[in-house]
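Hi all, long-time lurker, first post. I run a small reading group and we've been trying to get comfortable going from sequence to structure in the token notation. Rather than ask abstract questions, I figured I'd post a concrete chain and ask someone more experienced to write out its structure so we can walk through it together at our next meeting. Sequence below, copied exactly:
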Amino acid sequence: MRRIAILPDAVADQIAAGEVVERPASVVKELVENAIDAGAESVRVTVENGGKTLVEVSDDGCGMGREDAVLALDRHATSKIRSAADLVGVTTFGFRGEALPAIASVSRLALATSPGSGDATSLSVAGGRLERVDTAARQRGTTVTVRALFYNTPARRKFLRSAPSETRAIHDAVATLALAHPAVGFELIADGTTRLDVPPGQSAGERLAGVWGRELAGTLVPVTYAAGGFRVEGFVQRPGDARPTGRRTQLFVNGRPFRDPFLVRAAEAGYRSAIHPGDRPSLFLNIETAPADVDVNVHPAKLEVRFRERVAVERAVEEAARHAIGALVAASPVGEWRPMPDYAGGGGSSLDLGEILGGAALEARREPVPPVPLAQLFDTYITYESGDSLVFVDQHSAHERVLFEQVIAQLTGGAAPAQRLLLPLTVELTDEELEAVDTHREQLSAIGYEAEGFGGRSVVIHTVPAPHPRFDGGACFRELVADLARGRFGGWSNRLERFAATFACRAAVKGGDRLDEREMRELLSRLAGTALAPHDVHGRATIVRLPREELERRFGRR
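-- Answer (accepted) --
Happy to help. Here is the structure in token form:
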């Protein structure tokens, strides 16, 4: 008795449906992608009962003649490719020739289509069996109507989620494709209610506002960055608007949406030292590369891709995010700094640098605004009044941010102030620390350390940096090389940034250091000139605000 048998076509189609059609949202995705590939300028999606009862996708694309319409229901029938070679660098969305027959095998499907000349064609299919082919009246384009999804596979149907859950998944699928194609208009109607309606011919920014909402879109800044064979464009969120929850991310490669948590992490790495630990920025990025350098055929539903140069694309995404937020935050007014987390409801007025600093800031502004009084609390926090708020600055975090950006400038070509020691310091190190000194010798020299071996495990230090009067050059050197040897800042992918962050953390003034008024003003002035003033190199806040109304509530005045 034979054990091997050829599956009947109906069973093979249902197996294919299991890969392509997971839920109603999968049906919507496949049909909308076909509409886009057909050159549609507008796509309308109508669903009922979460797509379980009805899914209808109508477009104004090129349509099909009768012969093609019938042939499109056969497995492996496609207009997108002709040979295996076409799979390399494929640029269309639906190309496997499985979507329509797979959907038709597990539903009652009707199709009406017209190429714009001659009679339109309508046909109906039930459970994969063609029941009727007729002539119809229709303008150019195609309408696919899917009813009773999984009616003939009840085991699949019972695993569908509730109608609201399936509707949300459909909305996400349509919204993703709408973001990918701002030139195409999209309308989604669920149970008689319009859930999404965006016109054709929009810019990427307009489409983002229409899909994600204007409030979120208003927190994004544009990205344009090129490196090697990759170009990254899109939008990333301002650091001050990133939050632990509520973020949105969308990645595209050559306009094709895909998922890749590692590339999302790469973009987040570009925010290092710019956001609080745990905050997650929203991202909308399109990666452009040669079609032959990315494989889009690695997932049945085309949700994942594979890059030929994985490390290069991650580096490009990280640098794109860092470049975008660096250019933006440098020009941000101080009033946009993040409020105190415990009192998020208090806004406060914009802080005026002239009011805070006086001196050089006033001279630059040429306005006779008197400086406000400054005070130091617990030898750790600088505080002052601004508008309707009290502002607190962590002196260590603030100086850490200042030194980080100063050292980055020195490592990339600037001159470092240093002082020669009358009595050179001799420091004994471990083998790992000696290796760290040798590895980072050039960077140590750039920031002001002149050190040389003295036999065995000893190093002699002839010059040290001079970032502030309380700086202990020898202690900082020991802590710096110890951190470098132990990889304390090992999460930093950029070696120069890792070095700068480590030095800034060790060299900054500490909590508990008494500062006079001149020193406080100088620190605030230098902080105001940094690109990412709201956060230190660990992502912690450097400045928080206590609104006056909160004080009044505490004292019972409100």
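A couple of things your group might point at:
The first strand starts at residue 42 and ends at 48.
Residues 418-465+471-507 form a domain with the Ribosomal Protein S8; Chain: A, domain 1 fold (CATH 3.30.1370.100).
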